[in-house]
Design goal:
Length: 502
């Protein structure tokens, strides 16, 4: 990673950094690394450091110069860089060492890495569309002539049973006259056959009943919409000739609408059919609309690397109109996760780093694997442990100095700096979640999930408690996250917290 890539791109940003430099906040830029942290605190004369290796601009530390002078990048003097070899017997990992005064001037904010509640829902944006499954086609059941069209146009919203056109069907007049004549004979079999013929010609039961009541032929029928909704197509005009089965109109229902949400493909594994979805619209502030995920479309968008998730929303009162823009949250609830402030992450393009704060004003970069992000917090999947401390502001300058001093980042899976005495062997804790079956001040019985770190399957077993305080506020039936080790006395819980939402 190039430190220069992490610097502000705008003149205003560089000016702000320059102000920090001028106030002495980057005095550590040429200071000693942690291997010399036991040296006297007073500055040694420049001659005691030997000849500088090169000079550099703290704003562009990767650019080296063979003599002092003014930086070609900023209105400031170049800084010397001296050889800084680690002690041969040092057991401490290389790190940037900064005194308390410099940390204060730098404005570095140090926070602890800890477990917290992270929303498990996925936030996305989308737009409304018609429910393509709620479409009715209005057709002519028999050939004829259009005598009258009603005042309809495309995109009109009509109720169920709204008239579209009056159609004259000459064939119906003769068939109805025959039916009336057969009825007068009183032959039930002939009457039934004649009535069935009317139905086969496309007459509705209502029209046949009207002919029976009136005793007169009706060869003009009014074609109506079977459902309420918006007219999507309209292909009927006065005087036109219709063929049997010809489409006059298509009506799309509005009782439900589709919300097509664009979800990053990185969240594909978290999508579930049937999951609850909550949408909000700028036109209805403070109001949310609840639906469910009905489909995840099979093809991703190549340009935006997103998946289209289809949510079906009830449309009470016709408030929701296709084309409206929405913010949507898919899924609900919270989950427990190891969290750091999102601003603490240094994203280089190839990896993600944080600056770990160690005892004695020592800082070193560590590579991490970030997960989901919400509310200004980012989940850490690997690279940090609970209780470690990271720099949440000012970390870019510390990382720049680490690169300048050649300090390698702690890899994922690397052991964190131990706070135990050197003679004490660090204890590795296994961690999982489970349900409390029985608990007292000395022991606990837990039905826990698998523990991949030590190859345990899911089971119910008893553990010792390292202290009575662990049992405080926890009762049978609670879901907990706990960490334990396996001393000679038996598995012992060292840390236990209730899962959020309990």
């Amino acid at each position: 990673m190039k430190a220069s890539d992490l610097l502000p791109r705008t003149p205003a940003g560089r000016a702000a950094i320059l102000a920090i430099v001028a106030s002495g906040a980057i005095g550590f830029g040429v200071g000693r690394t942690a291997e010399h942290s036991h040296a006297p605190t007073s500055e040694a004369p420049a001659g005691d450091k030997g000849k500088p290796l090169y000079w550099y601009d703290p704003m562009t530390p990767t650019q080296h110069f063979d003599k002092p002078g003014k930086s070609p990048f900023m209105d400031m003097q170049l800084q010397p860089k001296y050889a800084d070899e680690p002690s041969s017997g040092s057991a401490t990992a290389p790190a940037v060492s900064v005194d308390a005064g410099q940390i204060q001037r730098l404005g570095a904010r140090i926070v602890a890495v800890e477990y917290g509640s992270l929303p498990s829902g996925i936030t996305a944006t989308g737009s409304l569309d018609f429910n393509q499954r709620d479409v009715a086609v209005v057709q002519a059941r028999s050939g004829g002539f259009v005598q009258r069209v009603y005042d309809r146009a495309l995109n009109d919203v009509v109720p169920a049973g709204a008239p579209i056109a009056d159609v004259l069907v000459p064939e119906w007049g003769g068939a109805q006259a025959e039916y009336l004549a057969v009825r007068s004979t009183g032959n039930a079999a002939l009457v039934q056959a004649a009535r069935q013929r009317l139905a086969l010609l496309g007459m509705s039961p209502g029209m046949i009943a009207s002919v029976e009541r009136s005793g007169r032929a009706h060869n003009v029928t009014t074609i109506t919409t079977p459902v309420g909704g918006v007219i999507k197509t309209l292909g009927v005009r006065a005087g036109m000739t219709l063929a049997q089965g010809q489409t006059l109109a298509e009506v799309n229902g509005l009782s439900t609408v589709w919300l097509n949400a664009a979800v990053p493909e990185a969240d594909a594994a978290r999508l579930r059919i049937g999951a609850t979805a909550k949408a909000s619209f700028a036109g209805y502030p403070g109001e949310s609309f609840t639906g469910r995920v009905t489909a995840v479309l099979p093809q991703a968008d190549v340009a935006s690397h997103t998946l289209t998730v289809r949510v079906e929303l009830p449309n009470h009162g016709g408030k929701l109109r296709p084309g409206m823009f929405a913010s949507v949250t898919l899924g609900e609830g919270n989950r427990e996760a190891l969290l750091v402030p999102s601003e603490a992450l240094i994203r280089t393009g190839t990896r993600t780093l944080v600056m770990v704060a160690e005892d004695g004003g020592r800082f070193r970069p560590a590579e991490v694997q970030p997960g989901a992000e919400a509310g200004g917090k980012t989940e850490i999947l690997a690279g940090l442990s609970d209780g470690e401390k990271v720099v949440a502001s000012g970390q870019f300058l510390l990382d720049s100095e680490a690169n300048l001093s050649g300090i390698a980042a702690r890899p994922i899976g690397g052991m964190a700096t131990s706070t135990q005495p050197p003679s004490t062997k660090p204890t590795t804790l296994a961690e999982t979640v489970g349900r409390i079956e029985q608990i007292d001040a000395q022991s606990v019985t837990i039905s826990h999930q698998p523990v991949p770190a030590i190859g345990w399957p899911a089971m119910t077993m008893s553990f010792h408690l390292s202290g009575p305080a662990l049992a405080r506020g926890i009762k049978a039936g609670d879901q907990v996250r706990f960490a334990f080790d396996q001393p000679p006395a038996g598995p012992t819980v060292r840390r236990m917290t209730k899962v959020a939402g309990q």
